[in-house]
Amino acid sequence: MYGNILNVTALNNYINSIFRAEELLHDINVAGEVSGFKVTKGHAYFTLKDENCQIACNCFNCAKTYIPKDGESVILKGSIDYYAKGGRLNFIVDSITSIGKGLLAYKLELLKAKLAKEGLFDIAYKKPIPLYPTDVCVITSVNGAVINDIKKTVRRKNNIINIYVKDVKVQGLDAHKDIIKAIELVDKMNFDVIIIARGGGSAEDLMPFNEEDLVRAIFRCKTPVISAVGHESDVTLCDEVADYRAATPTAAAEKVAYNEHELKEYVARCSKRMKSALINEVELKAKDLNSKVNLIKSKVMLNYMQKANIFNSYAQNLKSQIEKAISRSELRYTNVLTRLTADNPLGILQKGYWYVSKDGQAVSSAKHLQQGDTVSLKTYDGQLNATITEVSNEI
Hints:
Blueprint: H1 8-21, E1 28-40, E2 43-49, E3 54-59, E4 73-83, E5 88-98, H2 103-118, E6 135-140, H3 146-157, E7 162-167, H4 175-186, E8 193-198, H5 212-220, E9 225-229, H6 237-241, E10 244-245, H7 249-256, H8 260-343, H9 345-350, E11 355-358, E12 361-362, E13 374-379, E14 382-387
Parallel strand pairs: 3-5, 6-7, 6-8, 8-9, 9-10
Antiparallel strand pairs: 1-2, 1-4, 2-3, 4-5, 11-12, 11-13, 13-14
Helix pairs in contact: 3-7, 4-5
């Protein structure tokens, strides 16, 4: 008669399992009006309603999010929860956004989360701002006070930096498209840094700087970009994606405008220190060189003396050998001369001997002569001819 009968626990647990399994009921955004908002022990309990329905809401540790007022239109981010034990359906709130700021603020939060997830705001992609830029391009309106403030701030410290201005719309419909075209143009012109600037304004006035296309254009820019939009309390997506966020246009000018005089003084000090260091280095090298030169001289002199001693030894030895050779030659000469002198016929003739020849032949014996022969007689100082009148073999 009753079919399947469930107890309350089984029924509530079953209902709870259905809610937990339904993905569309988790991490959702719901808009409505706050009613009966109260905080107990750090947790907020209230009702969210519209003209037709309402739902109970719990926000644990509500200090971490926006605190609304009764009657305020808000957007809640959270999940549906079914409290099985009490049999109550609740919306567990993770964050609260006031629609009092406008639906644009909510859309902006969603866009910011999307772009952040893609990594467009990651610090790893931030390009460093040059310490000493030469050419700076300011993308802003030439009719506003911003560009004058930037120029004035820069010129107080620096007359070297070249400041170029690209005139764009900074407010109103399609202003972001004008800025995107300017960025794509000047990014090809080899500037050291680009400043995107405008003065303060309402949230609606600054909305062009929250456009997704502009954020992506800045991210693609190869030139370092400084965002200087609004006042210090104004934070746009342009600020998030830029390589450097300046609280104000004046702060952006301060960032790029290095102090020219301080730099010159610093360079002069560095030059003086370098000169001093160079002189010291030269003196040290000169001392080291002189030491090495003296060492080389000492080695050369020592080597020279050693070689000179060897040469002198060789010379003395050679001289001794030459003198000995000369002495031996003189002795041989004297001996030969003595022998030659002894064997010289003239020497014999000087002793009173005569050289006798007949018909050009020497006469060595009296037997070779006859009476009437004609002979030649030669002595050391002359010659004479004679006729043999008698031949005797007796001595």
